[in-house]
Design goal:
Elements: E1 2-8, H1 14-27, E2 34-38, H2 43-54, E3 68-76, E4 82-89, H3 93-100, H4 106-114, E5 117-123, H5 133-144, H6 149-158, H7 169-178, E6 190-197, H8 210-217, H9 219-227, E7 232-240, H10 250-254, E8 264-266, H11 277-283
Parallel strand pairs: 1-4, 1-5, 5-6, 6-7
Antiparallel strand pairs: 2-3, 3-4, 7-8
Helix pairs in contact: 1-2, 3-7, 7-9, 8-9
């Protein structure tokens, strides 16, 4: 049986996806590549996420009191191949730890090293780290141009001390992914489906594909995966699990008769509402 891991840093859209996926698999309102085979051990946790999603509320980030490891068993309708989705619905900080403190929770480390494929979330409604070193230097020179020593001292007092937590999202993700092939574990190839969540913020008339978006907005992550193609077989999807930005679009979303039709999936021939399409690709052996 294939084992798949669903991960993302804080506010990456993972919890919203989990709530929408739970409803999609149970309600059977729209065609999907995968079907549910058994209920999860922690149905209460999934129910809470689904209820938030159905109510068109912003799915709150995971708190320590609601952390949980959820396993969902699914089957490919066409091949009958089965997979278990390991969904560590943990606080996003757990995925930042390798880059921030140089450590990784043991259970998360074990899941990462043993998984056959990964679904990785990054939020399309969050800008990438586009500030270059040269730009930063020019900004300092412009701010201090013509100023006296006293003003420069005030500027120094306003500078915030460096915090590892503030390093760019891409650096955190890349360092986390490198744990999968780090000693003592031997490197081995895996599939990775990169999900650009909140895809509804992308103008449909701009002719932007998930692949071009990733190159332009997450260049470090894209280059890392492309340069290590012998280890990472990548596909990129754009997904709007909620269907629109909240609370702005709440009234429009609430009147959709079949909630599953709020979902929008783009990339690699996926059906428009099928959240399971990336998972089905991860399950494929060829």
């Amino acid at each position: 049986m294939t084992t798949l891991l669903v991960i993302g840093v804080p506010a990456s859209g993972k919890s919203t996806y989990i709530g929408a996926l739970r409803h999609l698999l149970v309600a059977n309102e729209v065609p999907a590549e995968l079907e549910l085979t058994t209920l999860a051990d922690d149905e209460g946790h999934l129910n809470r996420l689904e209820e938030e999603w159905l109510s068109c509320n912003i799915v709150q980030r995971t708190k320590s009191a609601t952390e949980g490891w959820v396993k969902v068993n699914v089957r490919d309708r066409s091949t009958n191949a089965e997979a278990v989705l390991i969904i560590p619905d943990l606080r996003g900080e757990a995925f930042e730890q390798p880059a921030v403190i140089g450590q990784c929770q043991k259970d998360l480390h074990d899941a990462l090293t043993l998984t056959d494929g990964i679904m990785l979330f990054t939020n399309a409604d969050r800008e990438g780290d586009t500030l270059m070193i040269d730009d930063f230097g020019d900004m300092i020179l412009d701010e201090n141009d013509g100023e006296g020593g006293e003003d420069m001292e005030k500027d120094d007092e306003c500078l915030k001390p460096f915090r590892p937590e503030d390093i760019p999202e891409e650096a955190k993700i890349v360092e986390f992914l490198q744990v999968a092939n780090r000693r003592p574990w031997p490197p081995r190839p895996r599939k990775i489906a990169v999900i650009a969540s909140a895809w509804d913020v992308i103008n449909p008339e701009a002719n932007i594909t998930p692949d071009t978006w990733l190159k332009a907005n997450r260049p470090m992550l894209e280059q890392f995966l492309s340069a290590n193609s012998e280890l990472w077989n990548m596909r990129v999807y754009g997904i709007s699990a909620q269907g629109g930005k909240l609370p702005d679009k709440k009234d429009e979303l609430e009147i959709v008769r079949r909630p599953s039709e709020r979902i929008n999936v783009v990339g690699h021939g996926a059906s428009p509402h099928d959240l399971t399409a990336p998972l089905q690709w991860l399950m494929m052996t060829a």
